[in-house]
Structures are given as structure tokens and as C-alpha cells.
Amino acid sequence: MRIPSALELTVPEWTSLRNIVANGFTPTQQVGAGHRARLTELGLIRAGMGGLIATPTGRIVARL
After folding, report:
1. Element at 46 (helix H, strand E)
2. Low-confidence residues of the chain: pLDDT under 70
3. CATH, residue 13
4. What pTM did the predictor assign?
């Protein structure tokens, strides 16, 4: 498994990821379904307790 590059994300997807990382926990409804699906597929976020949190990989990509 490889870590995705921030360049593989669209600007809106990257912005969504950065917001999730910055907030630490984001309600699911605040991120569009398309972004949520793509970021989850790449292993950058996961759903938990009614919201979204960044995975360790997601935090790395958000800072690149």
C-alpha cells in the first residue's frame, strides 16, 4: 500500500481533507458524499461516531 499524493486530489477534495484534519472531527454532513467516498477509498479518512476523522495517512497528505 502506498501513500497517495496530495496531487492526486482535486482542490475541493484536498480542502475537505484539510478541514477534517484541522477540526479533528467533522460531522459527516459537512463533507459532500463524493469527497467522502473518494477520501475514504484512498484511506485518508474514516467514519466514526457520527462524523469523520483523518487517518494517520490523511494527516500526512494534508500537510504536504
Report:
1. strand 45-48
2. 1
3. 1.10.10.10
4. 0.86
